[in-house]
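Exercise 7b. Backbone tokens:
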């Protein structure tokens, strides 16, 4: 996703330092982990949306920087917890916190990041921004649990898929956009409009990410990983609704019973790619 980063270059530089300060700890082990996390941060897409949304309403201010830090703290907390849940040893091409410091430390690090974000807003009376982001965390948790539930039953329904990704992915981006413009306008109507915008962008982002799982080129995400995790993504749902009954039964059987076998995963990937070209 290409964003007009040149418009917020100065804001992003200032944010780098503010985020480091926000993540600091007086506990040496925790501070060491925090430095590791900050050093290996991602593209900071969500803080970018905070700043770009804020610029629509006026000049970026301290409330905006706090909103961006809160978004990034919460997002990082969910990633650290996700790695524990998924037993993931890598994150963005590096060892995950879970791989280096194991379960207990990872769960506590995620909790610490969440608490730091909450206190950052509460200490500065940013109650509306905290409300935006707390709602997103609730939705993200519900989305993850709904996906777990439906993965077990293989309930292949597009409506459920969109409910899952709206909660899991789009909710945080939507809240980032709402928090951004609120920080410069304090306007509820503007925040609501930007929340809807972020929701649509987040859904599009997740659909694109799901398509990557069926791409043959190196994109930084292992091909077929969603199949191994029994995730019901749109390409798979679309394929199952298009193929003949025998192929459909075979795909479902593989997902349920043979989803870790490379040749079986490849069979599904090939089937999805074939349907996608029609």
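Sequence design result:
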């Amino acid at each position: 996703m290409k964003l007009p980063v040149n418009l917020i270059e100065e804001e992003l530089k200032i944010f780098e330092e503010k985020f480091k300060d926000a993540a600091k700890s007086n506990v040496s082990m925790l501070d060491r982990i925090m430095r590791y996390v900050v050093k290996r941060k991602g593209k900071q897409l969500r803080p970018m949306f905070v700043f770009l949304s804020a610029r629509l309403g006026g000049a970026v201010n301290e409330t905006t920087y706090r909103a961006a830090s809160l978004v990034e703290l919460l997002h990082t907390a969910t990633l650290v917890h996700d790695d524990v849940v998924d037993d993931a040893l890598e994150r963005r091409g590096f060892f995950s916190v879970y791989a280096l410091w194991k379960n207990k430390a990872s769960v506590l690090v995620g909790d610490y990041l969440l608490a730091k974000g909450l206190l950052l807003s509460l200490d500065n009376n940013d109650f509306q921004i905290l409300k935006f982001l707390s709602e997103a965390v609730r939705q993200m948790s519900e989305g993850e649990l709904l996906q777990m539930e439906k993965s077990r039953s293989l309930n292949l329904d597009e409506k459920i898929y969109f409910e899952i990704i709206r909660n899991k992915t789009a909710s945080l981006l939507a809240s980032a956009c709402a928090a951004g413009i609120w920080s410069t306008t304090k306007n509820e109507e503007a925040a609501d409009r930007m929340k809807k915008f972020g929701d649509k962008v987040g859904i599009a982002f997740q659909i694109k990410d799901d398509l990557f799982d069926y791409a043959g080129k190196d994109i930084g995400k292992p091909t077929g990983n969603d199949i191994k995790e029994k995730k019901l993504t749109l390409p798979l749902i679309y394929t199952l609704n298009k193929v003949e009954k025998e192929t459909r039964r075979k795909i479902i059987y593989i997902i349920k019973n043979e989803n870790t076998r490379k040749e079986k995963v490849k069979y599904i990937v090939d089937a999805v790619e074939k349907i996608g070209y029609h």
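Instructor comment: The two ends are 26 Å apart (CA to CA). The domain at 5-212 is CATH 1.10.600.10 (Farnesyl Diphosphate Synthase).
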